[in-house]
């Protein structure tokens, strides 16, 4: 879901890593080959085409980095084909209370392409389908490929979860990942202000201030 820039900032604070923002590569690749991909896994010819093309994109963004983060939210739709092309890739899923997540999206003035964020019923439906898809990836992806990071637990235990994230992507520990808010880098997404601040708890359970007005979202309670 949108509004998940925190983990990218944490990883990008490591001197061996770089945050590339929201790259369009996988969404465009899927559209170009959609009819074939709806029939089954990508062919060997297709993955051989994707691998050097994507590596060129990452190299342009971060030529000297050992790890590069592509944080485009819609990548969650394509984890299967990404894994087919890059079986050693690691996926980090920042999982937050669904009502807080949807309300945060609703409050944000996203571009028209994210039309589902403009209506509470649409948001609730979108989240349920997103949740169903993520449950599928957890079942079919190999163990150790996907790391779930509960936002509320990250706030409560910043160092513990940050160490798990850094270890998951195969990097040595670096204290700068704890001071992510001091990392100077260009952030062009809606999280540009949040990633400049230290972790705070005020956004946890924020939806309770608005529960009289968010009826459709309340159906998501407990879905996480």
Could you characterize the architecture of this molecule?
With 224 residues, this protein is mainly α. The chain has one domain (5-218): Rossmann fold (3-Layer(aba) Sandwich). Helix content is 43%, strand content 7%. It is built from 10 helices and 4 strands; from the N terminus they run αβαααβαβααβααα. It has helices spanning 5-12, 25-32, 34-37, 44-61, 79-85, 98-107, 120-140, 151-156, 158-168, 215-218; strands spanning 17-19, 67-69, 91-95, 146-150. Strands 1-2 form a two-stranded parallel sheet. Strands 3-4 form a two-stranded parallel sheet. The protein starts with a helix and ends in a 6-residue tail after the last helix. The mean pLDDT is 91.
User: How large is the share of residues in beta strands?
Assistant: 5-15%
Give a count of the beta strands, DSSP E runs of length 2 or more.
4
CATH H-level superfamily:
P-loop containing nucleotide triphosphate hydrolases
Figure out the total of helices: 10
Please write the string of helix (H) and strand (E) elements: HEHHHEHEHHEHHH
Q: Give the biggest sheet.
A: 2 strands, parallel
Radius of gyration: 18 Å
